[in-house]
Amino acid sequence: MSKIENAPEQSAKNKFSRQIDSAFEEASKLAGSSFAPTEFYEKFLNIAMGAIDAPAGVVWLRTPQGFLQIACQLNLDKVGLDAKRGGRQCHNEILRQVFQATPARPVMVEPQGRLTGVTNTEPGSVPAANLTDYYTLFAPIVNQEKQPFGLLELFHDPALDPRMYQTFLQYTTQMAGYASQYHQFSNARQSAGLEKVFAQVEAFAKQVHSSLNPTEVAYHVANEGRRLIECDRLCVGVRHGKKVTVEAVSGADVVEKASTHVRRMKNLFDAVLKFGDRLVYKGEKDEGLPPDVSHALDEYLSESQPKLLVVTPVRDDREKDNGRPARSVLLMESFNPPEKIEPLIQKLDLVTKHAAGALYNAAEMKRVPFGFIWRPLGKIQEGLGGKNRFYIALGVAAVAILAAVMVLVPYPLKVEAKGEFLPQVVVQAYAPTEGEVRDFLYKPGDRVKPNAKLISLFSPTFQEKYMKASGELMAAQGKVDGYRTVLAQKSLPANDELNLRREIAKESATVESQRAFIKQLTEIYNMVPGKPGEFNALAPRIDLDRSIPFQVGDYLVLNSDNRDQLKGRTVKPNEPLMRLGMVDGPWRVELKIPQRNIGHIAHALATEGMHNKDKDGKKYLDVDVLLASETDTSYPGRLYQEDLAAEAVPNKDDHNESEPVVQAYVRVDQEDGRRIPLELRKAGVEARTRVRCGPQPLGYSLFHGVWEWFYEKVVFFF
User: How far apart are CA 248 and CA 215, in angstroms?
Assistant: First the structure.
């Protein structure tokens, strides 16, 4: 009977054994191939899954930033990683621990099981668990130094004999080894090819920069570039002014500019340069080309019939005017191109990069540089009696003009200060009494309603008081109930009945006092009903009676994630636990102005014509605000006189800055100004500001710091 029962199992083993042997043979051949990584892993994963009938599989590779990223996957969405809450996060924790394990080793995790046997890794915030209904097999993909740079992960249905999965784990390890071999062979081939290409590129760069004649440079680019790219023909065009000239054609000693072929090539160059983008023709014309480019291409193809044609503009880094066409252009033709044309285009880009500077230099040398200026200057030099006198006169004139500009030209004086971008309403949450922090109900970035429960705390003293009051309440209530029962069931003498009623009144007063005490504890300390000693810290309420110029909304938790540091700690009522800001209200920059700059601001606010006034007649200075989260755009703000502090205080936040600062607030939500977008309103972002302190002479506005230092250290000293 046992033989009959083991027959299906033996049959399955024989089946998988044959499939595994075949998979090893195919993977061995695939590892030595020259496929691109994407194509290799697609074929590799199909082989790896097919041998053991795996329903799903993934190849993970490490990115340059150190994270695991999917290189190839099949049916990953069908294994149920997201079927259970936290399933994908637990799966990611398994990946992290297996990848970081030292030494690298294969791992198998059972369905609904946890990762075991992995050492030398730090535990994560979630458990490393497999919440799917499949066995998961992991094997590291390693480099020559046996360091992992990827993982092979296969899923399998648990319907087979569990003893089979150890064989599957060994199989997964072997297949990961073939993937490692592929990368080793690929790196070796790439290193050998790169060394040869580098030598060719170095020789090409030396040759194209050996001359400043446009024609000679163009011939070097055409002939040597054709050999480097390994194409059939490479042509070079250079733009002189508005017209493009065909300077060189590879393999031709002379360019016959009157020939039909060259003229149509020139027209194609003109059209592509005006188009401003690369033209690629692979046997079929793109219907989305501009009409002039399409027409020029049709005319050129009537003269030449390449199967691959690429026309690329060559723009040097020194060509700053992107609105004008590029200075040069290259045409690559191949009459029998390979199946994959990407390597040819990559080599063309390499040639273009090195040819851009050489062609630009040659074209610039051909131009006459500012002849209408240099000729009059030469006559002035002769009239002054020589080069030295000319340079002296030119220097004196330049200094005089510069001094006049610095003194006579007005320019806004801008003083700099750093600050922090925050909501106008920022409050702190405190514990109502001393207690131990148990749990945080909100995390940084969450929205919180006013008076919401934020933090759960526990106080043994509070618990003791509550239990004592509850005990006394129950005891007194029991006595009251007992006395009332005696009065209701027996006929007592008048004196005994009077004594019982006095006791009932006495104990009833105790009941009421203890109830009031318990209610007081519950309301003051925000006690959790049914949990003596456990209470909550609440978000501060907004005083709706006071006048506020905005609609009351939710708070946003602003502080960093310090929950792990505070949990289990005993905190006092004066210790801030959570920082909250009303993000739906107005925002401002909390500014710290160095005391050396406050004089300029005060002078501007006190002098007519150097400050502005709003519709209510309040004085303010315009402020340019630059947020660290968007360093390429400045936003307007206002510094009102009433928002300046009256005294300077030490700068406690900057330990490297000993100079006191004056605190101020810059308003950024003005109705008539450009507002900071909502997506940039992140509390705590550093803000750099420039306060406009009215017009001053250009020289003082630019170099007021130098003048103030000179006056303090030199003039004031004497």
Answer: 7
CB 382 within 8 A of CB 652: no
Average pLDDT over residues 115-126: 76
Cis peptide before 158 (omega within 30 of 0): no
Indicate the pTM of the whole model.
0.39
Q: Provide CB contacts within 8 A for 362, sequence distance 6+.
A: 211, 212, 213, 214, 216, 217, 218, 238
Q: What is the token pair recorded at 383?
A: 């009239």
Beta partners for residue 428, in sequence order: 579
Q: Is the pLDDT of residue 330 over 90?
A: yes
CB atoms inside a 10 Å sphere around CB 391 = 12
Helix (H, G, I), strand (E, B) or coil at 622: strand
Q: How far apart are CA 27 and CA 45, in angstroms?
A: 10
Q: Identify the CA nearest to 332 among candidates 315, 319, 317, 350.
A: 350
Taking residues 233-249, report their average pLDDT: 88
Q: What is the DSSP string of 491-534?
A: ---HHHHHHHHHHHHHHHHHHHHHHHHHHHHHHHHTBPTT-TTE
In DSSP terms, 691 is beta-bridged to: 415, 623
- Answer whether 49's CB lies under 8 Å from 153's CB: no
**Res 323: pLDDT:** 78
Instruction: Record the tokens describing residue 568, joined without a space.
Output: 């289990």
Using one digit for the tens of pLDDT, what is the confidence trace for 608-655? 888 888 888 888 898 998 988 888 888 888 888 888 888 878 776 655
Q: Rounded to the nearest 5°, which phi and psi values hold at 274? A: -70, -35
Q: Residue 23: is its pLDDT beyond 80?
A: yes
Token reading at 205 = 């760069």
Tokens 């291409």 belong to residue: 297
Distance (Å, rounded) from C-alpha 85 to C-alpha 63?
A: 27
pLDDT level of residue 251 (50, 70, 90 thresholds): confident
CB contact burial 425-446 (16+ within 10 A = b; e otherwise): bbbebbbbbebbbeebebebee
Q: Are 557 and 446 in contact (CB under 8 A)?
A: yes
The token pair that represents 401 in the structure block: 């003009």
State phi, psi for 378 to the nearest 5 degrees: -65, -40
Type and span of the H or E element at 90? helix 87-100
The average pLDDT across 517-543 equals 76
Give the integer Cα–Cα distance in Å for 144 and 128. 28
| Among the listed residues 716, 573, 594, the one whose alpha carbon sits nearest the alpha carbon of residue 649 | 594
The pLDDT tens digits of the residues spanning 66-77 come to 888 898 999 888
Q: Which residue, 712, 698, 693, is CA-closest to 593?
A: 693
The H-or-E segment that residue 356 falls in is helix 342-366
DSSP labels, 194-255: HHHHHHHHHHHHHHHTS---HHHHHHHHHHHHHHHHT-SEEEEEEEETTEEEEEEETT-SS-
Dist. CA 715–CA 693, nearest whole Å? 25
**DSSP structural state of residue 128:** -
Q: What is the pLDDT of residues 348-361, one digit of tens each?
A: 888 888 888 888 88
State residue 544's pLDDT score.
Answer: 45
Whole-number Å distance between alpha carbons of 110 and 131: 9
Query: What pLDDT sits at residue 550?
Result: 43
The region, left, alpha or beta by phi > 0 then psi within -120 to 50, assigned to residue 483 is alpha
Question: 127: exposed, middle or buried (C-beta count within 10 Å: 0-12, 13-18, 19+)?
Answer: middle
The strand pairing partners of 281, in sequence order, are 309
Are 698 and 406 in contact by the 8 Å Cβ rule? The answer is yes
| Chain centroid to CA 349 | 29
DSSP per position, 289-338: S-HHHHHHHHHHHHH---SEEEEEEE--TT---TTSPPSEEEEEEESS--
